Amino acid sequence: MSLVSTLSFLRQRSPVARIVVPSAALIFLGFAQPTAAQDQSDAPPPKVSIAAAYSQEITEEAVFIGRAEALDKVDIVARVSGFLDSQDVEDGALVKEGDLLFTIEPDLYQATLEARNADLDRAEANLELAKVDLARKEELYKRDATPESERDIARANELVAEAQVKAAKAAIRQAKLDLSYTEIHAPFSGRIGRVATSVGDVVGPTNPALVNIVSEAPIYVNFSLNEKQFTTVLETVGESASTLAESDKSPVVRVILPNGTELEETGQIVFVDNRIDPLTGAITLRAEFDNTDRLIIDGAFLSVQIEALEPTLEVLVPQAALQRDQRGEFVLVVNDQQMVEQRYITTGDTVDTAIVVKDGLREGESVIVEGLQRVRPGVAVDAVVASEQPGE
């Protein structure tokens, strides 16, 4: 073949040569792609732990802030003036009704009482004299031996003497009261606070209180319900505001102490106010507790719980299954085909490590509690039951 013929032959074949290389690359890529897909389909589904939604009877509770209030509390103030002779109790002591607490010097008041008794004796003697004089004037008047004016004066003197006797008796009663006030006794059983005075101090009605005393058991806890909550309670109980405290259907009241401990004993509603506070839109209720262990202290703030009258059957799931995005709270459900579904739910109160599901989930449906980060909706999973199943 000539040189010209050879060059012409190469020009005609070169386009074919340029096409051959890309075609080979495409063939290579075509074989490589099915291989990667095959590897992915061969990967096992991710393992997850699931727990079944379960039903449980839940007694719903409403929690409010309450304040403890003693049934009886009073500041002990001296009712007479004088030097404090003795202090007969220690700070913080438990006392019973009638126990002697303090003694104020009684000598002055004893002397006053004796003087008032003497005044009475004198007044009674004057009365006797006035009666004798009146009787004599009456007799003389009947005989026309004395003018009527003399008889009238004698009668007036008798009335004055009678009034003086009454005044003397009243003064004696006052003196006896003052003398009795020199001994200060506990008006009721309770515990006293810190004594604010010392023996030898001058005390009296205008001086500060000697001490305060507070009854500890039983004790009140006051709290408030808004209009809606109170109306719901009345409708549930079937009572009116005036009969709620006396009703056997009155809801049980519990308290949580300031340290977070729930008091074992329960209280009963004993008082309902007669009006809604227009400023707060709430009504005040009062529960009474036996306070056997003296754990509720006057003035303490407490969390108050009112239990619903009847428990309700609710669906619950572990809190570990709960997730949230911009749309709201959801769980990942594993269906019968072992596929993951995203399910938005409406939740309620928490119960230990579970949460109430009000809507969006049925009892028995399985939710993922472990392995959530390895799955997404629409993929198959290898589901195993969690070692600890709630509700069992």
What structural category characterises the helix and strand content? alpha+beta
Residues in helix, %: 25-40%
Distance between the termini: 95 Å
At CATH level 3, the topology of the largest domain is Elongation Factor Tu (Ef-tu), domain 3
CATH classification class of the largest domain: Mainly Beta
Summed up, the helix count is 4
Q: What radius of gyration results from the CA coordinates?
A: 47 Å
Residue fraction in strands: 25-35%
Q: How many β-strand runs?
A: 24
Q: What's the architecture of the largest domain, going by CATH?
A: Beta Barrel
What's the mean pLDDT score?
A: 85
Uncertain regions spanning at least 5 consecutive residues: 6-32
Total number of distinct structural domains: 4
Question: Given the C-alpha coordinates, what overall shape results?
Answer: elongated
- The CATH superfamily of the largest domain appears as Efflux pump adaptor protein, beta barrel domain
Describe the largest sheet. 6 strands, mixed
Provide an overview of this structure.
There is one protein chain. This protein has 392 residues and is α+β, with helices and mostly antiparallel strands. It folds into four domains: 47-57 and 312-385, conserved putative lor/sdh protein from methanococcus maripaludis s2 fold, CATH 2.40.420; 74-99 and 189-214; 107-181, Helix hairpin bin (Helix Hairpins, Orthogonal Bundle), CATH 1.10.287.470; 216-307, Efflux pump adaptor protein, beta barrel domain (Elongation Factor Tu (Ef-tu), domain 3, Beta Barrel), CATH 2.40.30. The chain has four helices and 24 strands. Strands 1, 18, 19, 20, 23 and 24 form a six-stranded mixed sheet that branches. The relative contact order is 0.18.
